């Protein structure tokens, strides 16, 4: 009988944590495990295709009385999860991000099921509500293994939460990049908005406006429109629907309300499944994040041969970019005018751009699936 492993995450919406969850599950299938991806939220909001051989399940819909209890129904949810782990005969459980990890540790502890925990952002900057922070502080030491994306994150977890043992697991690069629906051809989409096929494009991608620093990028872009008359800014990943009560697309458009020309050159196509085509279409890829875990989009853009400019934020970009060799790293607190100056310099120096792009492609080998896959599966087998 195959060993059963569950990957527990809040949802399979767009995002790096969701993609990595499915990658790890696929590796387990290929290695003879029987993986289940379990989420709290409905299948209806899944964005990514489920790999063959991976079972997809969700928590049961909560009864009305439990919803009325709000956070006080937490104990019932843990009890349900414990029963589910027992019924499914789970051998190893993997918690992705803080809240699922805390619930999983509490549920699995009496069953003596080994748990692997994976934080997906730098914890001091990715704040969680106080009850979750307190629980995390006391129970993360229960985990059999912590997957950490960067050494800095691992050091913080060990120092503050006694989180050990650890396995350094940066995000793997699936190459060539996966494609799935919806697919939108860049030139055709831009042409429908009056953009010529040879117009230069600054590209960014992400689902969270504040974390990814898109407001800073928009402020940097506005002055560039005066010097580069064909320049466009495309930001992928922001939903038209509100996120945590905020209409992120409208927030960005409000920033360029006083500059009609820039407003006409800011494009928000939403979530797409053929991001590789957009990497290839852009002149420069940007990641002005305020904090990261390990940025998938930057890794993919570099692998595609993009000229990349990123914020040296905690943590991840500095693991990928060696400043002025395979990309550009700007100080974490660099102002918009510094971004404007750097982007203008690259747009005017094609030879320099080509050298940076050629060197960026080397991440294909450094973060290849083949290397990281073996590291993860060996850790699984030891548990």
CATH class of the largest domain: Alpha Beta
Q: Output the radius of gyration.
A: 22 Å
- Mean pLDDT comes to 95
Question: Largest sheet, described in full?
Answer: 7 strands, parallel
| Secondary structure tally, helices | 18
Name the helicity range: 40-55%
Shape: globular
Q: How many individual domains?
A: 2
Q: How would you describe the oligomerization state of the chains in this entry?
A: single chain
Strand content: 15-25%
Low-confidence stretches: none
Could you please describe the fold and organization of this structure?
This protein has helices at residues 16-30, 64-69, 74-87, 98-108, 130-139, 151-161, 186-191, 209-212, 214-227, 248-255, 260-263, 275-281, 296-304, 317-320, 336-347, 350-360, 363-366, 369-382, and strands at residues 4-9, 34-39, 55-58, 92-96, 115-118, 145-148, 166-168, 201-205, 232-236, 266-270, 284-287, 308-311, 328-330. The protein is an alpha/beta fold and 383 residues long. It has 2 domains: 4-172 and 368-382, Glycogen Phosphorylase B (Rossmann fold, 3-Layer(aba) Sandwich), CATH 3.40.50.2000; 186-366, Rossmann fold, CATH 3.40.50. The strands form 2 sheets. A 7-stranded parallel β-sheet has the order 3-2-1-4-5-6-7, sandwiched between helices. The model has no long low-confidence stretch (mean pLDDT 95).
């Amino acid at each position: 009988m195959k060993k059963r492993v569950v990957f527990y995450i809040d949802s399979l919406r767009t995002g790096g944590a969701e993609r990595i969850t499915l990658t790890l599950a696929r590796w387990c299938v290929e290695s003879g495990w029987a993986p289940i991806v379990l989420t709290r939220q409905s299948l209806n909001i899944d964005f990514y295709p489920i790999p063959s051989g991976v079972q997809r399940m969700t928590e049961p819909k909560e009864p009305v009385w439990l919803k009325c209890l709000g956070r006080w129904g937490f104990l019932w949810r843990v009890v349900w999860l414990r029963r589910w782990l027992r019924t499914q005969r789970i051998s190893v459980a993997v918690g992705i991000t803080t809240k699922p990890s805390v619930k999983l540790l509490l549920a699995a502890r009496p069953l003596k099921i080994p748990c692997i925990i994976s934080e997906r952002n730098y914890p001091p900057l990715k704040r969680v509500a106080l009850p979750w922070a307190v629980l995390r502080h006391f129970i993360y030491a229960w985990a059999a293994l912590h997957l950490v994306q960067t050494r800095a994150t691992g050091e913080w977890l060990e120092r503050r939460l006694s989180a050990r043992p650890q396995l350094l697991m940066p995000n793997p690069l699936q190459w060539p990049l996966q494609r799935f629906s919806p697919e939108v051809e860049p030139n055709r989409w831009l042409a429908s908005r009056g953009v010529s096929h040879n117009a230069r494009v600054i590209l960014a991608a992400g689902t969270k406006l504040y974390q990814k620093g898109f407001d800073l990028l928009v402020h940097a872009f506005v002055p560039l429109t005066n010097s580069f008359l064909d320049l466009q800014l495309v930001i992928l990943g922001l939903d038209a629907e509100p996120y945590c009560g905020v209409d992120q697309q409208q927030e960005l458009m409000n920033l360029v309300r006083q500059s009609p020309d820039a407003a006409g050159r800011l494009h928000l196509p939403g979530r797409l499944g053929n991001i590789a085509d957009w990497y290839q279409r852009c002149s420069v890829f940007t990641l002005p994040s305020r904090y990261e875990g390990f940025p998938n989009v930057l890794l993919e853009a570099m692998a595609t041969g993009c000229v990349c400019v990123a914020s040296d934020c905690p943590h991840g970009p500095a693991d990928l970019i060696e400043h002025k060799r395979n990309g550009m790293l700007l100080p974490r607190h660099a102002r918009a005018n510094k971004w404007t100056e750097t982007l203008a310099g690259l747009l005017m120096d094609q030879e320099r751009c080509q050298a940076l792009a050629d060197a960026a492609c080397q991440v294909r080998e450094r973060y290849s699936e083949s290397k990281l896959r073996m590291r993860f599966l060996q850790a699984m087998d030891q548990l």
